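Obj.: predict assembly geometry.
Materials: sequence records (below).
Method: joint structure prediction, all chains together.
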Amino acid sequence: MQDLLQQVFNGLVVGSVYILMAVGLTIIFGVMKIVNFAHGEFYMVGAYVAFYLVSLAGLNFFVALILASVLVGLFGILIERLINRFGKDMAELEYTYFTILLTIAISLVLANTVNVLAGPSQHQIATGISTAPIQIGPVVVSEFKLLVIVIAFSLSMIFGLFLKYSKFGKAMRATFENREAAASVGINTNIINMVTFAIGAAMASIGGILVGAMFNIFPFMGSQASLKAFAVVILGGLGSFIGAVVGGLALGIIESIASGYFAVGYKEAISFVLIILVLVFRPEGLAGRISR
Amino acid sequence: MIRKLAVLPLAISIILLLLVGCGSSTSTTSTSTGTGQSGTNGKIVIGVIEVLSGPESYDGLRMLEAVKMITEQVNKEGGLLGKQIELKIEDGAGETATSANAAEKLVANDKVQALIGAYASTATAGLLPIVAKYEIPLVNCVSQDPKLSEQGNKWFFQGTLLNSTIAKTGVPEFVKMFGIKKAAIVVINSDAELEYSDTYKTFLTDQGVAVTQMSFPEGTQDFSSILTKLKSEAPDTLFINMGSNEGVNFLKQLYESGLKARVVASDLYQQWADEIPQAIEGMYFAARYAVSDPNPVNQRFVKDFQARTGKLPDDSVAGDYDSMLVLFDAITRAGTIEPQALRQALLKTDMEITRGHIEFDAQQRGGFDTKIVQFKSGQLVILKTIPFAGV
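Observations (raw structure tokens):
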């Protein structure tokens, strides 16, 4: 029982990072209908920016976290403007192919650019936060791991409330439901797109920074992260914010328990088998909606 | 519309091409420590295959510095056989196919006369058919898998303590020192390392120790599940067998987990001492190499390497340096760079390297004393030296 509780806690930590990645990816898809294959690179670039802000500029970890996510958010706006500039007049299918190819290309360019500029060696982001073990009942935690969970849940909650209750959040949801109708009632969908991409990129970058502090960073870390983000989004339901949260937690905990009770090498296989099973019985995902 | 569509992908393709070009030019470096000509024109040309990209490049880049350092020193003293030494360097990326392609290029195109490389045993395995095909000596004092020399490739010289030898000498010593009753082995999931760990397990079981083994895939960053399992197993000693990057993550998380167990590995990766000294305090090693080894060849090497890079070397770095020492010694004794004569000279190697005394046996395997060391207050302290008694 003690082991199970520990594995669940471990899964919560990993799941928290998955939530940050998946929320960003799902809102970009939901609002803009873009499958963003460069999402993992926002995660990676955020981690590297934070690493250099801490190690070279000597900034405090939290200041670096905020600054890096803002910078990556602004970078996200740049990508969105690029997509808008070249893709806005395209027919739907053409637009889909275009955004897929473009985001794959951006992903390759970013990963290889960082590899050339920063070098292939791995680094860890220093936080100044204690990593000493803390015993809470049967579970061993650390300050930083608790912080990861707090950050992920807080941001998710803030964003969820923003989406539900704020004027801008309602405008985002309207655009998500029906872009043309939203535009026809005066919602500036250009602004919606820009802000959506910025938020998505920023959240992914926060995930990367937290992982970079817990483990390490390297130029090609984004590809694995992208894969997990897609898995969570598919599990939770494409375009569903609640699905991204539930899916992220579910995947993190399932992987942790699978590693603990079977073998670490099987965790991906077990997770993906479960995702396939969910999709067989519920193709729209755990919290997605069936399109009419 | 077509023009609009074409412009952006074209621009991105150009950027990608430039990046690939930049990437290639940094990974395929022809470093002349002589007067800048390629080929064998008045020079001794040695091929070097290192890991210059990917996670293991932390080690590979430092190993290359050691190779360049000794080459520059020898060239400054007049070279070998009155000729300057030229290095031709390729990135094997730590992968079998990439290393094999690198070797093929070095031998067929660059006409190297001997090779060293390629770090991981799986990568080195890719070189063996190439050196057999072209009959070029390959000296490797780094790769530890016995299977490499078991193939009987007469052009391959494996000058390091094999995994099996370390297990045979180290395990009984640790059991005796600590009275180990219950051990756990945590190992990276590769054929060579799993086999190595099975050897450890066999020796431990023969000594009456209860053993659990856990493996994980390469690239694993999150070890929380393994650590949770280890906590419930509660071993008194933990044997670990993994690469430097995985080790950084595992040992850091082990330290953070509060799990109290004695930790034993084979060699210390300098990356661990640089990045996580607190997490490895008190850790034991059945080591091939120790920076504090008073042997004069080692002390000169450590001093020169530290002056050049500002960092201390570890076993991998010493290994490549030793590969060059062995090769240079053989070239000097052979009096020629002709492959057959060089091979005969290598067979008669009898010299001191950074890690002790080395000679090659009939299977072209060399070895030296095992050092039982402990990492204490930032230093590797040699507790005991176990004489080499053959493979």
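Conclusions so far: The CA atoms of residues 81 and 194 of chain A lie 7 Å apart.
To do: check interface contacts against the pulldown list.
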